[in-house]
């Protein structure tokens, strides 16, 4: 993978923001620290009223800002993809940050190695670590990629550590803008059905789990939407989906026991 011509960077990093001043500094610093700087950084802002826009304005480097993008997080991510000029697109939300300065160089090398071996890939993913209440959890085990494992929920792919060739979105589509929680799972299932990824078995990003996280703020609705998404793809691996259903019912009962008021309201 050679250096891109002017205006065509290797990486387009999409960061969605909305009143993100409390956490955005870590996101910006982690991108600015990358040893591979063949990037553009696209910010998709939902109408911030805090210091977010001032922080973006002061941020050096190759950047673009899409202002007042409404319609939810899936639409914001899609707007970033549509604006991207890079060969590889990544979504790094303003809650998250890259684990170290070699992340983009490592990802670029993974794409190049697959190309050199005659096995070009359309997407690469790695591990994450979760930061919660000021404590960093150890990375989870990463089994080799299996579409059946993805369908059954036995393996997970976290969006801050996913890197997709822009051309792949033309092949399988972008994020489903009707989804609020499981849009990434839906996209990985579409991608995984037609293109095997390369996996990097190391943490590439840190995900903040806090009360304001979309995935954390309403776990019950997130699980229900995830079930709907996985059911869409059940025909590709019906046995794996059956296994997932058993796991889903167990987790759903646990969530309902934790939050009976939420369960009765839904």
UniProtKB/TrEMBL annotation:
<dbReference type="InterPro" id="IPR029044">
    <property type="entry name" value="Nucleotide-diphossugar_trans"/>
</dbReference>
<keyword id="KW-0808">Transferase</keyword>
<dbReference type="Pfam" id="PF00535">
    <property type="entry name" value="Glycos_transf_2"/>
</dbReference>
<protein>
    <submittedName>
        <fullName>Glycosyltransferase, GT2 family</fullName>
    </submittedName>
</protein>
<dbReference type="GO" id="GO:0016758">
    <property type="term" value="F:hexosyltransferase activity"/>
</dbReference>
<dbReference type="InterPro" id="IPR001173">
    <property type="entry name" value="Glyco_trans_2-like"/>
</dbReference>
<feature type="domain" description="Glycosyltransferase 2-like">
    <location>
        <begin position="12"/>
        <end position="114"/>
    </location>
</feature>
